[in-house]
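input
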Amino acid sequence: MKKNRIAHTLLAGTGVSATDAARLILEAIETLGDTAGGTEPMPLLRRVIQAGVAAVKAAEHTVPLSMAAWASVEARKDLRATTRRDLRHFVRRILRVEGAADMPLRAMSTADCRRILAAAFGTSPSSYRKGRAVLSSVFSYGIRQEWADSNPVTRIKVPAVQEKPIEPLAPDEVERLKATAGRPEFRDMRLSLSLMLYGGIRPTEVSRLQAADINWEEGQIIIRPRTSKTGGGRAVPLRGVRDIRKRDRHIPRNWKRKWQALRRAAGFRHWVPDVCRHTFATYHAAMFRNLPELQLEMGHRDPSLLRSRYMVPTSRKEAELFWKRCR
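output
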């Protein structure tokens, strides 16, 4: 009777009765099974309780998806401003899905992530791939912060994206662009146009070039890692620039606006991004048939991308005309 009174006194205010406590102890011993055999029950039960408390605390140590997502963006200070802007755009789309922002990161399942991605990016396989990569990076960051134990996004299949080949500009379209660049208001864009058409340099890379990146004596452009889209440097020969006046041999300010204006003035209403780069690669492959050299100038790690996206079948005659007009 005295022991019962002590038990009731110890449990007072906990909401647990002596009977409940006894049942919990029996359940623990039965669950432990052979582990409990030959072991003093009290030390073993204390270890079980301590491990359970630690597991519960760890499970509750998390943050909402919104907090983890923005923290992961802020941690990427190595990214360029444009890349960070794109990253923020995808995070906003993820968090706009109903209920997503407030979900505890540690409690999110693969099914939750799949539903969010389908709601945010379901209509576009390429956007779905990017959104999946962004959400996966949020969980990777969360694991490092001990806000999550695993990355459920890794169990979501990456959708295949069928890349459509980009047709190169026809020789007459190239001449329209060059003729427009010869007009007084666009002459400071002639160098930029030549770099894109005859060097395969991306528009964003051209816009980032500095005067020191252009070596006129050696006839080459240095695409430095800070300039390159992929973060790798490369050297590209200068072509089609002999008749450009010295005062026009620079990258103008407000480059993006000028590039758009030049295209409109040349009569292009619909413009495919990077079509100048694809034009260069297509005519280079058709004319010179030197994939290692082309791969080096394009800055690709392997030639598979050249074959799958850049090598649109074209006539030798058109390729010859393209390079003859370059000279």
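quick obs: The chain has a mean pLDDT of 86.
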